[in-house]
TrEMBL record, chain A:
UniProt-recorded name of the protein: ABC transporter permease
Pfam families: ABC2_membrane_4
Keyword Transmembrane helix: yes
Species, as recorded: Paenibacillus tritici
Record field: transmembrane: 69-87, 108-125, 145-166, 173-195, 225-244
TrEMBL record, chain B:
The protein's name in its UniProt record: ATP-binding cassette domain-containing protein
Keywords, sorted A to Z: ATP-binding, Nucleotide-binding, Transport
Residues in ABC transporter domain copies: 6-233
Organism field: Paenibacillus tritici
InterPro entries reported for this sequence: AAA+_ATPase (IPR003593), ABC_transporter-like_ATP-bd (IPR003439), P-loop_NTPase (IPR027417)
PANTHER family: ABC TRANSPORTER, ATP-BINDING PROTEIN
Coiled coil (residue ranges): none
Pfam families: ABC_tran
Family statement: Belongs to the ABC transporter superfamily.
GO molecular function: ATP binding
Length: 253, 308
């Protein structure tokens, strides 16, 4: 496991795509802040975006579809998995003890590292952009910010595991990328929520991973915290197990 | 040689409704070189994939060292495989590919191991060109190096000679023999029996997913050598005549009425002449010659093409 992770880390560190994605994300994030500044229209009764604290700003950003962060994560996940799968490199080590299980676990850790790096990049970009264009760098309540970051990190990681499952099962770059985009736009979540509202009285769709992810959360409410972390944990477990189980049974042709 | 490394019992693999390998039984002992021969689509790669743990059998069992390899269990700590196309990252160098795999294996002195292997298969370790710019033969060589990394107990090579130039073929064949001498058990597949005849100790002929024949090197040689098959009333009476009159030294008495003569310079009519002069009756006499390829073709002719 450690050895396979070492190998994946080595490949991760030399992955130009990863640096490119982070750089693009950083640039677009700052550019986005610039655009917000330029086209800011005061909405009555609401705090202008430029006056939000970092926590509020993150919540605001993530709740505005499409979530670019999800798209970057999807692209990276698919790229990282498919480059190994398509090359057939896994054939070389798959006869090792528990290689299938370990290779999936190692991928999960790599994904967590990438998602963490995305959040770090976001914090840096936000800090720089807000300083430059809003001249406002307040972080807000630190505990709230940290809870928010951890919660969102877990939700995004769960999303990347979901994308990993899709890439593993689809075995096709285009199909998995399209699926990634559709999920990042949360088409399914919105349709289900609408249908649910129309047809039934129950409200289960808000517990969907991406609906939870984009919802503006109130971390003073225990229910919201439980909701966020509960959904994240459940999704990580569910998709993680799905990925491992699929890999264990897969025929590697 | 009594150590059974791999035992295959009733191994079957179906893809949807198509059976790629059907009910295969085989025992592979330590130190053997097993040649698997079959036409395109015969199921060679599928069989090797099952042994290599890439593909799960639909039914049947695989035993390693007499232990069942059920589910996800490890087969060997290190089994070197080269099946179909070598699994290589196209955008990095040969060295880097090996380096990544050496990491996965947790090898200690990676650099030394890699340099040695690259030299062994005739590639330049200083070559920093990306693998995608490699020729087919270079890729195949690198694939063999990848399979050899980490000193495996068992080496599985699926058509390793594909794309190699004649010198390359000789080199690889030499390499396989050396590795075998050093104690490796090797499984190797090919379309061409001739190609394996110089190295394998056991042959498996597979056709449309079924093992048609499993034979040892000696058995194969026996079936393919050139000889005159002589049928007489009493072999004991014929032998002194053949020895005395024709100086025949290489022969074999198959049973009391049949003798095989292996001397190349002897003609059928010479034998007929001396035996009839001595009053010995010949029941039958025929030249038997079959090349390895003929032998293989004969075994694998599909039912429709059979001409008898
Ligand atoms: N992934 C797959 N899905 C469906 N059918 C397959 C698959 N892999 C192999 N087959 C079928 O199984 C049969 C055996 O294939 P296999 O690749 O084992 O043949 P082979 O002996 O290696 O042939 P070749 O000499 O061309 O490499 C073929 O008829 C092939 O069509
Ligand atoms: Mg094949």
């Amino acid at each position: 496991m450690i050895n396979l992770l070492k190998m994946d880390l080595h490949r991760f560190g030399r992955n130009r795509m990863m640096y490119l994605l982070l750089l693009l994300f950083c640039a677009f994030q700052i550019f986005g802040i610039f655009m917000m500044k330029k086209y800011e229209q005061p909405v009555e009764g609401a705090i202008p975006v430029s006056r939000l604290t970092e926590s509020e700003f993150i919540q605001y950003n993530i709740s505005q579809p499409p979530s670019w962060m999800l798209i970057y994560i999807a692209v990276f996940t698919i790229y990282f998995y498919m480059s190994e799968f398509n090359s057939g490199f896994h054939k070389n080590y798959i006869s090792m003890r528990n290689a299938r299980l370990h290779s999936v676990c190692s991928k999960l850790i790599i994904l967590a590292i990438f998602v963490a790096m995305m959040f770090l990049t976001m914090l840096i970009a936000d800090g720089a952009g807000r300083r430059l264009f809003f001249d406002h760098t307040a972080l807000g309540d630190l505990a709230t910010l940290i809870t928010l970051l951890i919660g969102q990190f877990l939700l995004h990681w769960a999303f990347s595991i979901l994308i990993l499952c899709i890439a593993m099962i689809a075995k096709n770059l285009l199909i998995s990328l399209s699926a990634g985009f559709i999920l990042a736009l949360n088409v399914i979540g919105m349709v289900l929520a609408a249908l649910e509202a129309q047809l039934t009285g129950i409200h289960l769709s808000k517990y969907l991973l991406i609906n939870t992810l984009v919802r503006v959360k109130d971390f003073n409410s225990t229910a919201d915290i439980v909701h966020t972390f509960g959904v994240a944990a459940a999704a990580i477990l569910l998709f993680g197990i799905l990925a491992v189980r699929y890999k264990l049974k897969e025929d590697l042709n | 040689m009594t150590d059974c490394m791999i035992e295959i019992c009733g191994l079957t693999k179906m893809y949807k409704s198509k059976t790629a390998v059907r009910n295969a039984d085989l025992k592979i002992y330590r130190g053997e070189i097993v040649g698997i021969i079959g036409r395109n689509g015969a199921g060679k790669s599928t069989l090797l994939k099952m042994i290599g743990g890439l593909v799960y059998p639909t039914s049947g069992e695989l035993h390693f060292f007499n232990r069942a390899a059920a589910g996800e269990q490890s087969f060997f700590e290190r089994m070197g495989v080269l099946i179909e196309n070598p699994g290589l990252y196209p955008n990095v160098s040969a060295y880097e590919n090996l380096n990544l795999l050496a990491m996965a294996y947790g090898l200690g002195d990676r650099n030394a191991a890699i340099e040695k292997l690259l030299q062994l298969v005739g590639l330049d370790s200083k070559n920093t060109a990306k693998v995608k710019s490699y020729s087919m033969g270079m890729r195949q060589r690198l694939g063999i190096a990848v399979a050899l990394l980490g000193s495996p107990d068992v080496l599985i090579l699926d058509e390793p000679i594909n794309g190699l130039d004649p010198q390359g073929i000789v080199e690889i064949r030499q390499l396989i023999l050396e590795l075998n001498t050093a104690g490796l058990t090797i499984l190797i597949s090919s379309h061409i029996l001739e190609e394996l005849s110089k190295i394998a100790t056991k042959y498996v002929i597979i056709h449309q997913g079924e093992f048609i024949e499993v034979l040892s090197r000696e058995e194969l040689q026996q079936r393919c050598e050139e000889r005159i098959e002589l049928g007489v009333e009493e072999a004991r009476a014929a032998l002194p005549v053949l020895e005395r009159e024709l100086n025949i030294t290489k022969y074999k008495v198959v049973d009391s009425r049949t003798v095989y003569v292996y001397d190349e310079n002897i003609h059928i009519r010479q034998i007929v002449k001396v035996l009839s002069e001595q009053g010995i009756m010949i029941d039958s006499i025929a030249k038997h010659k079959q090349s390895l390829e003929q032998y293989f073709l004969e075994r694998t002719e599909s039912a429709g093409e059979r001409h008898d």
